[in-house]
Amino acid sequence: MDCNRVFVSKVKRLTIVFTLLIAFLSIKIDTFAQVDSAVVPVDSAVAESVHEVSGEHGAEAKHGKEKFEPTKVIMEHIADSHMWHLWGHTSLPLPVILYTANGLEVFSSGNFHHGEHDYNGKYNNYRLEEDHIKVVGADGKIDEEASKSILDFSITKNVAAMFVAILVILIVFISVAGSYKKRVGKAPKGLQSFIEPVIVFVRDDIAKPNIGHKYAKFMPYLLTTFFFILFNNLFGLIPIFPGGANVTGNIALTFVMALGTLIIVNINGNKYYWKHIFRPDVPFWLYPIMIPVELIGIISKPFALMVRLFANITAGHIIVLSLISLIFIFETLAIAPVSVAFVLFMDVLELLVAFLQAFIFTLLTALFIGMAVEEHH
Amino acid sequence: MELVTPSIGLVFWTSLAFICLLILLRKFAWKPILGAIHEREQSIDEALNKAELAKQEMARLTSQNQDLMQQARAERDEILKEAKTLKDGILNEAKKQAQVEGAKLIEKAKIEIENQKKAALAEVKDQVSSLSLEIAERVLRTQLDDKTKQEALVANLLKDVELN
């Protein structure tokens, strides 16, 4: 538990740094927004006058002066997408898989041409609107009712990024396992000696102290969770192609991870665990309060796990993108060194957070499992 | 709101992928890796225990060796002492025996000398007697050259014999 205390203090420090940064940013943006609002009328007036003067050039001028909207850009990155943006106007089209009442519909997202075209599918016509696939009715407008009835099982950017991470995890760990078979009883070497301390750390500092002697049964789940989160966190930090997706900062993924913990904990809960929930050691007239509280506790623990991972990773991405956006908000290169310095700092911090969040998720999962399998007196 | 609404597609693919990952890693990675780490830790523990035992054994052997050395030294001293007494005994005995032998030899020599002396004396006596007989014979011959004297002697001798 000693290392736990260290980490708690680290988390506190991190929170303070985060808060300060966010405060700094909000002040900056606020002041800029004030300046901006003062400037805009003049700007728009000029634009209007330009528009009036030269008809067909107006559209171009307007396009060139397209206002940079940091919120939209950041949210676009944070959210999922049906295309994997590579560079400039090049995107990797990803498969779209739709479950409709009539059957499965599979086609490439390239058919939407970045949302400019509709796609005529087997059963419906589809349109990509703000990265959501909607059904287009006979009248050429979006049919909201029909859109709700289709289920989107597409291989989105996050799914693809997750598959890349999984592929890397499999390659790394199966090759490491191979080198264990090749070098039986010898000292670790290469990648093996990099991975082994982490595995031993998960076993000796996460599983053993929290679960106790039954730890071995849960090791595969804990290790897989740890490395799955860690690799996805790290891939999310890479700004170019195979990385860059906000996988662990997506609520769906953290939801699944937390659901896994919920299931593992409750399947392995022994009679003491259930007695603690349904017959706690309190006077019987407190039961109407205690039992609902305990039942909420079952859900709230994994819920906290879900939100913690999601919020931490998303916050990291938002901060990095906000700092980069500063260059475009100020529309000057002069701010770039400051921006880059802060992004560098944040990236290093995010590297720590990537490990920390993987560690905390695994630690808390182990703790909950430990509470569920603990033998009393 | 969209940010915190899990989408069904991602939930589905994540569940599927995570379960596959869990199964694959459990079979192909965690089992061999954890097994190997556990085995190696055990072998290291064992080796350390063995080293400890070997150290103790060494200490024991060293003390035993010292004991043995001391014992051997004591034994050697004893053997030396014994040998010395034995040597003294043998020397003394040899001396005694030599003395006895010497005495015996002297005795023998004495007896021999006595015998020789006796023999020599006997020979001397014999020679003396034969010489004296010769002398007596010569004397008698010279004295009994004539007949008368011979007859007188015989008569004399006879006289003696008759008396007996």
From TrEMBL, chain B:
InterPro entries: ATP_synth_B-like_membr_sf, ATP_synth_b/b'su_bac/chlpt, ATP_synth_F0_bsu_bac, ATP_synthase_B_chain. It is a single-pass membrane protein. Belongs to the ATPase B chain family. F(1)F(0) ATP synthase produces ATP from ADP in the presence of a proton or sodium gradient. F-type ATPases consist of two structural domains, F(1) containing the extramembraneous catalytic core and F(0) containing the membrane proton channel, linked together by a central stalk and a peripheral stalk. During catalysis, ATP synthesis in the catalytic domain of F(1) is coupled via a rotary mechanism of the central stalk subunits to proton translocation. Keywords: ATP synthesis, Cell membrane, CF(0), Coiled coil, Hydrogen ion transport, Ion transport, Membrane, Transmembrane, Transmembrane helix, Transport. Its main location: membrane. It is found in: Cell membrane; Endomembrane system. PANTHER family: ATP SYNTHASE SUBUNIT B, ATP SYNTHASE SUBUNIT B', CHLOROPLASTIC. The keyword Nucleotide-binding does not apply. The gene is atpF. It comes from the Bacteria. One of its GO terms (cellular component) is plasma membrane. It comes from Pedobacter roseus. One of its GO terms (molecular function) is proton-transporting ATP synthase activity, rotational mechanism. This is ATP synthase subunit b. Residues 37-123 form a coiled coil. The chain crosses the membrane at residues 6-25. Pfam families: ATP-synt_B. The lineage of its organism: Bacteria, Pseudomonadati, Bacteroidota, Sphingobacteriia, Sphingobacteriales. F-type ATPases have 2 components, F(1) - the catalytic core - and F(0) - the membrane proton channel. F(1) has five subunits: alpha(3), beta(3), gamma(1), delta(1), epsilon(1). F(0) has three main subunits: a(1), b(2) and c(10-14). The alpha and beta chains form an alternating ring which encloses part of the gamma chain. F(1) is attached to F(0) by a central stalk formed by the gamma and epsilon chains, while a peripheral stalk is formed by the delta and b chains.
